[in-house]
Amino acid sequence: MDPITVTTTVITLATFIKDLIEVGQSIMDSIEKVSENRRQLRDLTNEICRSLANIANLVRGCEDEYMAPALLAALGELKAEMLHVLRVCQDSIIKQEDRGLQALKSQLKMWRMRNKMENKIWHLKEHVMSCYMKFIAYSTARNEQRTAKIDRTTDHVEEMAFTAVNATVRIEQTVVLNHTENQVRLQRIEGMMARVLCEEKFGQDIMNQTMDIISADTGHATLESQYLSVSVMHLIDHLRVAVVSGKLSPRKSKDIPSMGQPHFVLPTPSKNVLYDILRMTILCNNPAQFKLQWTDINFSLGVELGNLGSSSEAMSWYTLSRKK
After folding, report:
1. 189-221 as b/e, with b when 16 or more CB fall inside 10 Å?
2. CA–CA distance from 255 to each of 45, 167, 241, 263, 305 (Å)?
3. Alpha-carbon gap, residue 234 to 255, rounded angstroms
4. What are the pLDDT digits (tens) for 257-313?
5. 181-190 CB contacts, 8 Å cutoff, 24+ apart
6. Which residues contact 110 (CB under 8 A, 6 or more apart)?
7. Is the CB of residue 244 less than 8 Å from the CB of residue 300?
């Protein structure tokens, strides 16, 4: 329906129900003027008016949702019967201007029609209740449909959330796997570079040139100084992993430099610093071929790094060498 038609239909439905209530009130007012069976008829008409009010309350604010043809037809039939009952009740009223014989005839007519009027009002009450139950059933079905729709939406949202969680887990697993694979590749490349620098004459020449630059770089701003720093920190990480994984044999007390007595370290050529780092890196990257011992570790490396001015790396190495 277009908006104008919907608005007109809603107004018509509300007006229609209002008319039914007014007819019911008119029937009740007519009953008040009948002396016979007044209490019983009043109770019946009160029930009719209450049921009509319940229908009005049920559809108030959502009239457009109750435009089903079956409901509109039920209201039309109900209104027709109510108008018929109203005419019967009005015909039974004794007019005040009737006097004498005419008044007697009116009373006799009322006496004959009282059972008929009572039966019609009774059937009207049943009809109103039947119509009200149709509205209740329609409202219940509509609420069940809404509930089912909400349940389906909830299930869909839960399914989407579950799918999102699975996707997140898969992404995290992929990231972790890629990171692990990259770490393995990086270690292999690191080991290959260390072997080239330590075992090949070309590499030894490069190592000597690198250490000459590092020794002269007091500000540690060159790429060579950064390479030394990264190599030291990677070696420390390798040793920590070796300790946790058990690949590094337990440290004995004789392997620990004494803290009670002065520990002197003879100065070594600066090129030996990088050589020692690369040598220990090779040992850490080949745990299957070498059983790493604490005696393989140059504890004086911290002093040598300090002599080069790499204070933070020297402190990190000193801290590692003091751990059991």
Report:
1. ebbeebbebbeeeebeeebeebbeebbebeebe
2. 108, 50, 19, 13, 20
3. 22
4. 443 333 333 334 455 788 888 888 887 776 555 555 555 566 677 778 888 888 888
5. 187/285, 188/285, 190/234, 190/281, 190/285
6. 34, 36, 92, 93, 94
7. no
- Residue the block writes with tokens 């439905």: 13
DSSP character at residue 268: -
**HEC per residue, 44-103:** HHHHHHHHHHHHHHHHCCCHHHHCCHHHHHHHHHHHHHHHHHHHHHHHCCCCCCCCCHHH
Residue 306: exposure state from Cβ atoms within 10 A (0-12, 13-18, ≥19)? middle
Locus of tokens 């449909």: 145
DSSP string, 114-163: HHHHHHHHHHHHHHHHHHHHHHHHHHHHHHHHHHHHHHHHHHHHHHHHHH
Residue 184 pLDDT grade (very low, low, confident, very high; cuts 50, 70, 90)? confident
Distance CA 62, CA 309 (A): 83
49: tokens are 């008016």
Q: Spell out the residues 6+ positions from residue 296 whose beta carbon is closer than 8 angstroms to its own.
A: 280, 283
